[in-house]
Design goal:
434 Repressor (Amino-terminal Domain)
């Protein structure tokens, strides 16, 4: 099942119109419509987290419908599978411009060392 179909199924299962669903998430109805029709590929991770929190949906619900955008061809061919939390972190990381990713990793490592 495609991502948009999953969102529509969830919304209908909850008995919500697109407007009511969007209002609960604090987004515009058009965004819900665009995702459900496939015009927009998916919600951003923050919206997905809101859906998971508000409606009690496992974040893996969203990931299962398609391969993660952040996995490169080599890692897709490997047998490594990621938890839902790791998938979300990888998607956030993929949104960081490539030129800044090393800086982010250095910062994370410093934080880990500091708060370990």
């Amino acid at each position: 099942m495609e991502y948009g179909e999953k969102i529509k199924e969830l919304r209908k299962r909850l008995g919500l119109s697109q407007s009511a669903f969007a209002a609960k998430l604090g987004i515009h109805k058009q965004m819900v419509s665009d995702v459900e029709r496939g015009k927009q590929k998916r919600f951003n991770p923050a919206i997905e987290q809101k859906i998971a929190a508000i409606f009690g949906v496992d974040p893996a619900y969203f990931i299962a419908s398609q391969n993660s955008q952040v996995m490169n061809t080599q890692s897709r061919n490997s047998s490594k599978s990621y938890s839902a939390e790791e998938e979300i972190l990888l998607r956030y990381f993929a949104q960081i411009p490539e030129a800044k990713r090393l800086d982010v990793l250095v910062c994370l490592l410093e934080c880990i060392r500091k708060y370990k």
